[in-house]
Queue: 2 jobs
Job 1
Amino acid sequence: MILDISSTFEHFRDRWTPSVSDWVSYTDWQNSGSKDILIRANKKFKKILASSSETLIDKELENSLKLYMHKTFTV
């Protein structure tokens, strides 16, 4: 495993930091508003949705998928 290599383990936080959880002390967390992970995750979720396009697939493909789903799941 790559984390078995001591230098990797020692420096992995230099390359990656969490985007929802945090590594601050409990006191710092309290002083910054005590927002738990659910609140931070919900805020990030809303930001991602607000900044993304309505769809990530081609309109023609989306229409084909909708037609397929309508035919398949409509009784």
Job 2
Amino acid sequence: MEKITKATWENAGVEASFNASKTIIMVMDKHLSILAKQHIETRFVKIQAEKSPFLAEKLKIVVLPTLALVNNAKVDDYVVGFDELGGTDDFSTGELEERLAKAQVIIFEGESSLNPTKSRVQTRGVRQSTHSSDSE
């Protein structure tokens, strides 16, 4: 995750603000790190609310952890705590992915991009056609 600059703020998709217990930080950070690698179309930015009181106040962050979901330099939605993710810290990355997709800050096509099914993903070699052959 990166430092916040004016350009970052204008293009940010997910602003993560942590400073609760170390366990909570690690849980949310783990899921967001996975999603940041999967969804390169979205900029994920992490701040520490206690070290950035002005920004935390501007983003209206009260409960930690809070994800400020930003679109076109405007906060459109928030994910506050773990309530929307099952109420516990053992939620899956897919649940967080679905929540971020609901806010339209990531591109999501129905199934988690973390666990594509064989029916959705079709692999083939360079010289293979998409049509099956009886000679195989």
